[in-house]
Amino acid sequence: MVGGHTLPLKVDNTGFLLDRLGEDCHPLQYIRELTQNSIEAIARAGTPGEIVWDVEWNQFDETGVYKLCITDTGDGMAGPDMVHYINTLSASGGTQSFDKNYGVGAKIAAATRNHRGLVYLSWRDGAGSMIHLWREPNTGAYGLKQIKQDEDTYDHWGPVAEDVRPALIDQHGTMVVLLGQSDDANTVAAPAGVRTPSRWIARYLNTRYFRFPDGVVVRAREGWEHLRSDVDRNLLRRVNGQAEYLAAHSESSGQVQLTGAIAHWWVLKDEGAITQNSGITASSGHIAALYQDELYELQEARSGTARLQHFGVVLGAQRVVLYIAPQPSKEVRLTTNTARTHLLANSEPLPWADWAAEFRARLPAEITDLIARVAAQSKSPDHEKSIRERLKQISDLFRVSRYRTVPGGDRLADPATTSGSSGSAGTGGTGKSDGGSGAGEDGSPPDPPGGSSTREGDLHSLYLSKDGVPAKEAKPDPYPKALWVSVTDGTRTPGDIEDRAAKYLPEQNQLLINRDFRVFEDMIVRWELQYDGVPGSRDVIEDEVRQWFEQSLVETVIGVQALRSSKEWSLQSIDQALSAEALTSAVMQRYHVDVALRRALATRLGSNA
Question: Which architecture characterizes domain 242-373 according to CATH?
């Protein structure tokens, strides 16, 4: 046994450590970190306060170079305090804990992107002090640059002249100036690839925060390149967070209780704001995790549509917003990764798949109604009956099984792959295998696309597992429910399955076919030319072309599903074989479709020979 004192662990080459951790940060993460520091400083001051992201106009007037700065009216810091808090990794002026401030965020996210430095100017009780955190170019070490006090004295902090004090600050507050990677760097300009570069700070903060604390006003400069007298374009815009926008632009909202989380949902109004406000906020459908009034892992546009569809919002995703708020408990500790880019539950990623399955099973009536309304806009005819009739001849080739979880079952099914179904492989199923009305087995009407039956016994597992739950083999309908979607009728969100043939949603057993895909249109044009001048030929050709391509896609889905009983086909392999890219490949062979069309069109329109 060894006794005595412990030799504290030290960090060698902290510059490399910070640079490496900085790589894990979102490119705009420093905006959040410095804003959060200001929020906490205002809370410590105990009075309402303001945070402003702006140009450091004194430096611009002197050098002509735009430097970004953030100013707050928080409690401020004295010089020695600044040296301690800013130059000590994991030191914080607030409460430091796993679910609060780590004291490393700004040092990692901001300093690694501003090698020339961050200049902190802070006032407490009317006295101003400053420090300069930078990356020493010769050694790569991060630390405080020496500041000349007088002719013979240097220190790592110094007093600030009164004429430097921002107008916003009276007796207490802080301003941080971001110098960038070089003296001539314009740090007010948006980094490359950022959306809406003229309003990038406001948009980032709006999409990062659900709401700001009461008594905290946040503003951000836009139009800085215009004359300061041009107040219509060069102005400070109020930043409110997503809550205010959603309250003003939603037609309905509510909550769904999930295991360990609450799903907050909004259905947005069908109005111009969905696209017109996209430059300042997340104005159309998206999904995120919500924790302590901040948004994590926000997904919008194409990735947002895909995740919303996973949650059962098959159609109309552009008008649905979901925020999943995990609930901490004795068993579940919520925190973030060090860079605060991801929310973690017991140090693991959030259980998005589990929450998606629960939400699909409890889909709010307002969202179900939206999906049905959007589906009704589809102009595509129903080809299901004729496709089923043709495929009956080879039904023995489509051996697809599902496993119904029941006590005492002779199989072990994987509960993680459970999908809701009205007698089908997914919640979009028809409930009958004879091409009939599509009503459920109990005579109830079919679920709309993306809907979810909650009748007992309607849940089927897709896969077996040695660690699963007791189940019996079921014989559900293997046919996916197909729907043709298009941007022109509002059934497809722009960007979703763009230039792809189709998308398959396994949880709903739903096949969304892109009516705008050029391969389909090329085939229509080909046969239009051959039946040029025949009255009514366009509608007949469109109907037949879509019917035969739909059959190709339906067969592909059913055929790939039959492979899952093979040990060589993992879940990931099945997903890849049913991806939008794989389904596109399935319709790229066109000879057999063309032959089928020749016969079908000859029957309906007469021979074109």
Answer: 2-Layer Sandwich (3.30)
